[in-house]
Design goal:
The complex is a heterodimer.
Chain A (H helix, E strand, L loop, with lengths): L1 E3 L1 H15 L3 E5 L15 H9 E3 L4 H13 L3 E5 L7 H9 L4 H4 L9 E6 L14 H5 L5 E3 L4 H13 L4 E6 L8 E3 L12 E4 L4 E5 L4 H13 L4 E5 L2 E3 L3 H11 L2 E8 L4 H12 L9 E5 L10 H4 L3 H12 L1
Parallel strand pairs in A: 2-3, 2-4, 4-5, 5-7, 6-7, 10-11, 10-13, 13-14
Antiparallel strand pairs in A: 1-8, 6-12, 9-11
Helix pairs in contact in A: 1-7, 3-4, 8-12, 9-10
Chain B lengths: L2 H26 L14 H10 L6 E4 L4 H7 L3 H8 L23 E4 L6 H15 L5 E6 L6 H12 L4 E7 L2 E2 L2 E2 H4 L5 H6 L4 E6 L3 H16 L5 E6 L17 H9 L2 H11 L5 H25 L26
Parallel strand pairs in B: 1-2, 1-3, 3-4, 4-8, 7-8
Antiparallel strand pairs in B: 5-6
The chains are: A alpha/beta, B alpha/beta.
Chain lengths: 324, 330
C-alpha cells in the first residue's frame, strides 16, 4: 500500500497489466522515451522495451486504427491520445470499426483495446486541451466510456478496462493527475465497469458527478451538511454503459437530484440521466431535477476558465433550489 | 534585397526572437496561461518566406507555434501579446490564446492546435482563390511531424489534382515533441513525399535567410503564376522545448550547440558586418532598442488591458446567441 497520485496509480496499472499479460502493448505519441506528455507511461519503455511500448508517428487516426487491427488479431493494445481533443481524428476508426466489429462478425471478433486520453479543464488551456466530449463516445453503442475520479479507482478501473473484451475509451481527468494522493494497494485490484459508487450516503438529496467534478461536488455536500442537509453523492465512474439503477434507487429514496458535469450542457450526460430518471424514478421526484454543467460554449481560455467550470458554489445553489 | 531591406529583415528577426523570449518570461510569471510553443531558432523560415510573399495579401495558415507568423503577416505585436495574456484587446479578444492567434485583416488565417489540421484548410483557401480568380496565394507553414497525419496526404493530392495556388512550407525541425524524425518517419527528406503527388518541391537550408528567400521567391512565383502547388522544405531547429512543459531530455547538448552555431540571426548579422553594411555597435543598439520597445509598448499594453467580460462568455458561438448557451436555467 502506497500513497499515490492518480498519475502514478495509472502508471502502476499499466505496468502490472503489462507484466501479467504479454499481449498488452502501449502505443502513442511520445509514450516511450518521453514517458508521455503527462508522464503516465514513464519508465515503461525501460521495463518492457521498445517493442511493447511504442512511440508512434503523429497520426491519431492510424494510432487508433492500428490498435483496432492489433486487437482483432489477438493483442491488447492501449492507445494513448495526448489530449482527448486530439482524438477526433481517431473517432472515425472508433465509430466506424471498433464499435462495430463484434456486431459485424456476429460475436466472433472483438476489439479488446483501450484508448486512454486526458480530458477536461484545469490546466489553464482551452478548446482541445480542456474539453470534455465523453458523450461523443457514450453515444456510440459498442464502446464503453469510463472516467475515474481519483488514484485508487483510476488504477482499478484501468485494469478492468484493459481486461475487458470490448473497446473502452478511458478519459483521465487531467486536473487531478497530481492534485491529491490516495492509498493504492500494491496487489492487483479491479472495479467493475458499468457500476457507479455511492461515495457519501445521505437521505435528503442525491448529487451525481464524475471525473474531476467529484471533488467540488463533495465540497458542496460538506457545505450542505454544515446546514443540516444530508446529501448522498454518487460517483458515476462509467458513463456508458450507465449504472442508472444505482442513481434511480438513490433518487427514489431522496426525491431530489443534482447532476454535475463539466461538459457542455446540451445533450450531455446530465440530459441522459434526466431521461432515465424520468423512466425509473419519476413518481418519486419531489422537485424538478437540476444540473450544473459547463456552458454551451467553446471551453474558454484561462481568464474565464473558472467561470466555465462548475464549482461548489454553483452546486450548492442548484441543490438549494431542488430542496425548496 | 538591398542593404536597407537586409537591415530591416535582421531587425524583424531579432524582434521576433526578443518577443518570444519575453513570452517565456511572462509564462514563467504565470501571466500567460495554457501552453506556449516558442519559435527561437527557426526565424529565417517565416521571415525568408514572407519576404518573398505579399504579407497581408496572401493567406497564411500555420500550427500552434504561430506568434511570429502572425506578426510577420502584419498583426500588431501588442495585440498578439494581449492575446497570450487572454485579454479583451488581444487579436482574438482573448478567446484564443497562444495556439489560436487569428488576424483576419492581415489574412493570417490562424494558428491551430491540432497537428495537421490546417492542411485541408490551406487547400480550401487555395480553391477559393482559384474559383474567385484572385492573385493571392495560400501559404501553409507546418512542421515535419504534421506530414504523418492523413490530412497531409489527402490535401496534397487534392491540391495537386486541382492545381491549387498553395505553397506548403515544411519547417523541418527534426522533432515531433520528443520523438526524432528517424523514429517516426519512413522518408526523412520531406520534400520527397510531395513528389509522390507530383508536386514541385525543394529542400533548402532553413537557417540562412537569404537561401530561404531565394527558394521562396521561386516557389511563390511558381504558385502565383497558376502552375499549381509547391512544397518547400526548410531544415531548421527549435532551441526551446516543444512547449514550456518540455524538459528536452530527448536531445543532446552537443546537438543543440551544433545548431546554435548556425543561428539564423547570427549568420545574417555576421554576413552584413562582413559586407560592411552593419557594425557590431549597430547591432547592439538595435537589440537594445527592440528590448526597450517591447518593454515599453507591448508588455504594458497586455498587462493593463481588461479581461474578457464575464457576461460575454457565450458570445461568438453562433451568429445569433443560442438561448441555451447561457446554460438554460442556471
Amino acid at each position: 500500500m502506497a500513497k499515490l497520485t492518480m498519475a502514478k496509480a495509472l502508471n502502476l496499472a499499466l505496468a502490472q497489466e503489462m507484466e501479467r499479460d504479454k499481449s498488452v502493448y502501449v502505443m502513442g505519441e511520445d509514450v516511450g522515451r518521453d514517458g508521455g506528455v503527462f508522464r503516465i507511461t514513464e519508465g515503461l519503455i525501460d521495463r518492457f522495451g521498445e517493442v511493447r511500448v511504442m512511440d508512434t508517428p503523429l497520426a491519431e487516426s492510424a494510432i487508433v486504427g492500428v490498435g483496432i487491427g492489433m486487437a482483432v488479431a489477438g493483442l491488447k493494445p492501449i492507445c494513448e491520445i495526448q489530449f482527448s481533443g486530439f482524438s477526433y481524428m481517431g473517432i472515425d476508426q472508433l465509430e466506424s470499426h471498433a464499435a462495430r466489429m463484434r456486431w459485424r462478425s456476429r460475436g466472433r471478433w472483438s476489439v479488446p483495446m483501450v484508448v486512454r486520453a486526458p480530458y477536461g479543464g484545469g490546466v489553464r488551456a482551452l478548446e482541445h486541451h480542456s474539453e470534455s466530449k465523453e458523450v461523443f463516445y457514450a453515444h456510440t453503442p459498442g464502446l464503453k466510456m469510463v472516467i475515474p475520479s481519483g488514484p485508487r479507482n483510476a488504477r482499478a478501473l484501468l485494469v478492468s478496462a484493459i481486461r475487458d473484451p470490448d473497446p473502452v475509451v478511458f478519459f483521465e481527468p487531467k486536473a487531478i493527475y497530481r492534485a491529491f494522493r490516495e492509498e493504492v494497494p500494491d496487489e492487483e485490484e479491479t472495479l467493475p465497469l458499468g457500476k457507479a459508487r455511492i461515495v457519501r450516503e445521505g437521505g435528503d438529496i442525491t448529487l451525481v458527478a464524475y471525473g474531476a467534478m467529484l471533488r467540488p461536488t463533495l465540497e458542496a455536500a460538506e457545505q450542505l451538511a454544515g446546514d443540516g442537509i444530508d446529501p448522498e453523492v454518487i460517483d458515476l465512474l462509467t458513463i456508458s454503459p450507465m449504472d442508472d439503477e444505482t442513481i434511480a434507487a438513490s433518487v427514489r429514496k431522496n426525491g431530489r437530484v443534482v447532476i454535475v458535469h463539466e461538459a457542455q450542457r446540451s445533450f450531455g450526460a446530465g440530459a441522459e440521466i434526466f431521461a432515465r430518471l424520468n423512466e425509473k424514478a419519476f413518481w418519486y421526484l419531489e422537485a424538478p431535477m437540476e444540473r450544473v454543467t459547463g456552458y454551451d460554449v467553446i471551453v474558454p481560455f484561462f481568464a474565464r476558465e473558472k467561470a466555465y467550470l462548475p464549482d461548489a458554489e454553483r452546486i450548492v445553489h442548484a441543490a438549494r433550489r431542488a430542496l425548496q | 534585397m538591398n542593404a536597407a531591406d537586409k537591415k530591416r529583415l535582421l531587425r524583424e528577426m531579432l524582434y521576433a526572437r526578443r518577443f518570444e523570449e519575453r513570452c517565456y518570461e511572462a509564462y514563467v510569471e504565470r501571466k500567460i496561461g495554457g501552453f506556449l510553443h516558442l519559435y527561437p531558432g527557426q526565424e529565417a523560415c517565416v521571415h525568408g518566406v514572407m519576404e518573398a510573399a505579399k504579407p497581408g495579401h496572401d493567406y497564411v495558415i500555420t500550427g500552434y507555434r504561430d506568434h511570429v507568423h502572425a506578426i510577420q503577416c502584419g498583426a500588431d505585436p501588442k495585440k498578439v501579446m494581449a492575446e497570450l495574456y487572454g485579454k479583451e484587446t488581444g487579436s482574438s479578444k482573448g478567446r484564443g490564446g497562444s495556439m489560436h492567434i487569428f488576424d483576419v485583416e492581415h489574412r493570417f488565417m490562424g494558428g491551430y492546435a491540432l497537428v495537421g489540421g490546417p492542411f485541408p484548410l490551406a487547400a480550401g483557401i487555395g480553391k477559393a482563390i482559384k474559383l474567385q480568380g484572385g492573385d493571392e496565394i495560400s501559404i501553409c507553414f507546418l512542421g515535419d511531424a504534421a506530414n504523418n497525419q492523413g490530412s497531409f496526404h489527402e490535401s496534397l493530392n487534392m491540391a495537386a489534382v486541382w492545381e491549387l495556388p498553395v505553397l506548403f512550407v515544411c519547417e523541418n525541425n527534426l522533432y515531433g515533441i520528443g520523438t526524432r524524425i528517424e523514429r517516426s518517419t519512413a522518408v526523412q527528406e520531406q520534400y520527397k513525399r510531395a513528389c509522390g503527388y507530383g508536386i514541385e518541391a525543394a529542400r533548402v537550408d532553413g537557417q540562412d535567410i537569404e537561401t530561404v528567400y531565394e527558394a521562396a521567391l521561386k516557389a511563390v512565383d511558381y504558385v502565383r503564376s497558376g502552375k499549381g502547388p509547391y512544397f518547400l522544405e526548410l531544415s531548421t531547429y527549435r532551441y526551446r522545448g516543444h512547449s514550456m512543459s518540455d524538459a528536452g531530455a530527448y536531445r543532446t547538448k552537443e546537438e543543440q550547440q551544433e545548431w546554435i552555431k548556425r543561428d539564423p540571426i547570427n549568420l545574417f548579422k555576421e554576413r552584413l558586418i562582413e559586407a560592411g553594411e552593419l557594425s557590431e555597435e549597430d547591432f547592439q543598439s538595435l537589440d537594445k532598442e527592440i528590448i526597450e520597445q517591447i518593454d515599453r509598448d507591448v508588455i504594458p499594453f497586455a498587462e493593463e488591458s481588461p479581461e474578457p467580460k464575464l457576461e460575454e462568455l457565450e458570445k461568438y458561438v453562433l451568429a445569433e446567441n443560442d438561448p441555451w448557451v447561457k446554460g438554460g436555467a442556471q
